[in-house]
Amino acid sequence: MRIKATLIGLLIFAFLILVSSAYGQLHNNHWYFGNQQAIDFSSGKPTVLNNSQMLSIEASASFSDPLTGELLLYTNGQQIWNRNHEPMQNGSGLWGHQSATQGTIICPQPGSSNLLYVFHIDRNGFAQNHNGSLNYSVVDMNLDNGLGAVIDGQKNIELMKESTEKVSVVRHENGCGLWVIGHVRNSKEFRAHLWTDLGISDTVISLVGSVHDADTTTATIGEMAVSGNGEKLALLVHQKNIIELFDFDRASGKVSNPLKLEGQFHDYGIAFSPNGKLLYVSNFAEKSHLRQYNISGWNQVQADTTMIVLGTCESDELKFGGLQMGPDGILYMKRSTAEEFPDSLAAILFPNKVGLDCGFVRNYLYLQLNHGAHAYGPELNFSNLMNTDDLPFESDCFRTGSTEGRKQDETTANRRKQR
Fold first, then answer.
1. In Å, what is the CA distance from 400 to each residue of 111, 196, 281, 343, 385?
2. Chain-centre distance of CA 370, in angstroms?
3. What is the pTM of this model?
4. Using CB atoms within 10 A of its CB, is residue 213 exposed (0-12), middle (13-18) or buried (19+)?
5. What does the pLDDT read at residue 335?
């Protein structure tokens, strides 16, 4: 009986892991980005779509229902579109800019099954004259007959002034909160904003690393990345041509222990391998290329001496852009093109493998033709929201943790399936 009980327990545990994994992946089913580009991972592999209404140079984010995988909304940081590809009610005039590197990100409100926060960055005050601030707007998916709408009075709320073009979200160590991480321009100041079911409250400031100079409108471009376990952070300091890595404490929100690597002119995209031992950096200079660093020893000498160029663009008119881990475990990179070249995504098929064994493919997935993608990117989806194994919806505490909360989520899922 004891052996039987143990086997049943193991089977239940394995089943729960599989369910949690599948459940956690669904929010990432659809990617809408660039100039009317979109792909769907619902079948397990990427399928090109042609229904996007969005135009974006860089900033883009999309979010699918974590219970059903159905597309809910997408945005370029200035306008939100609903799942019918129509402008969302009260979703225009956001204080963001489509040419901010990580100009927008979408994340569910902890403890809620219907509220989504859309964060958006005004690029150096370039478009809206709001001092390059990091802002957010709150979407209630129960409004407008389930199509969602930005709540009146909860639109364009300023979270941080003088922001660079970087933002990431990491789950709190307790599993029931999130950290929204940004960096201040002309400063070495990180700000981690604690976000719980009560809203965004405490702000933790860390003065560490390099000053992010912002003397030009392009000075603060480049991505910020968080490792899959949420304990490492990496970013590009564009003005200084350096790469910086840090420890991140998911309990306190503190950034510490900087490690500086030599970067190159016009580095743009950055991503960790799923196991956190490798770092990938894309570059959109005249000789655009992709590099890999071994950071397993957290040592500058090791990282610099093991750096390898995985591939270069076959033409100076082609550029490598943003990096994004897909729900299929493949690391994708946007290739920006001139008119005579079809837009495509490059891919690292085995991102945990060192060197050329990682399986870099230059043209892995061809997209819609002649959409004129911008040379800087554009960004893929919500880069660095968090990897698919670290989603807020995985934990019951984000659905209130009660039987009633789970019933409410199931009712919401059934209602969305019926529409």
1. 5, 12, 39, 43, 22
2. 26
3. 0.85
4. middle
5. 82
